[in-house]
Amino acid sequence: MNSNDLVKNILKHDIDEQDRILKSTEVIKPCPVDIDLGNLLVWDSNIIDQQAYKANRDEYIKNTMRDNMQLFVNALWQVPIERHDNAIVAKLPESKTIVPREKPVPKPKPLTKWQKFAQSKGIVKQKKSKFVWDETKKEWGRRFGYKKANDDSKPWLIEVPTNADPNEDQFAKRLSAKKERVAKNEFQRLKNIAHANKVNVRNDGALINKKSSANDMKKALATAKYSDASMGQFSERATVDEERQTRGFSKRRKYESNLGSLKNEKNKQLKIFDQMNSSTTK
């Protein structure tokens, strides 16, 4: 073999290697695949070549996935393309495949007490502007939140009322009053949520359980007898069962003596044996 033949063989080998690595973008299949660009989905309905699959399963799956991905990319470059902020964006069409939901459709939120009242009175909420005019700063500012306009919550000077203690800190008093208002609003919000979810709540926020059993009532009564200042010393004496329920114990279990009758023990064991051998089991 001369040098020219050697060079031709090397070049041919390189071309074959490139063809093997860099495959063509044109993929031909017996049945065309179904491509849903809206869901980025490719459905291949071609029959699997069982002989090639059994010979080399990984290679067969890899080639099939490569061909389907190539068909998907070819279809993707045929849709309208736009450029936004130096990025190429493809405008996908509407999806064709109906995909089931992972979770059920969320239920509508129950109306609050104010929303029910507004519906009954025909009150329509009007959307206010986020910005208002600040007369002090002579500029537009936010209506609520950080650096809001006409904010008098943090004044640098507070006039002491006539009937107030001159040594009282008016700044701390105003801050305490604000915290109380915030806590009251939060408490009212939680009550509205409980009312919307049909949870019985007392005025102090305690839950009202209408399904309490007689046992729960006895336990609550026994606890209440020991909840006064004298720890129940001057209250009506609780029974033994009530005391045990208060301490978290149930009724005392009775155990039989270890030195019992041999005849009774034999009868019990025979009875258990008969039950195990009987055709009708409980």
Automatic annotation (TrEMBL):
A GO CC annotation given for this chain: preribosome, large subunit precursor
Top-level taxon in the UniProt lineage: Eukaryota
Coiled-coil blocks: none
Region spans: Disordered: 237-282
Subcellular location field: Nucleus
Keyword Heme: no
Keywords: Nucleus, Ribosome biogenesis
GO BP terms: endonucleolytic cleavage in ITS1 to separate SSU-rRNA from 5.8S rRNA and LSU-rRNA from tricistronic rRNA transcript (SSU-rRNA, 5.8S rRNA, LSU-rRNA); ribosomal large subunit biogenesis
Function: Involved in ribosomal large subunit assembly.
PANTHER family: RIBOSOME BIOGENESIS REGULATORY PROTEIN, RIBOSOME BIOGENESIS REGULATORY PROTEIN HOMOLOG
Family: Belongs to the RRS1 family.
Protein name: Ribosome biogenesis regulatory protein
Species: Rotaria sordida
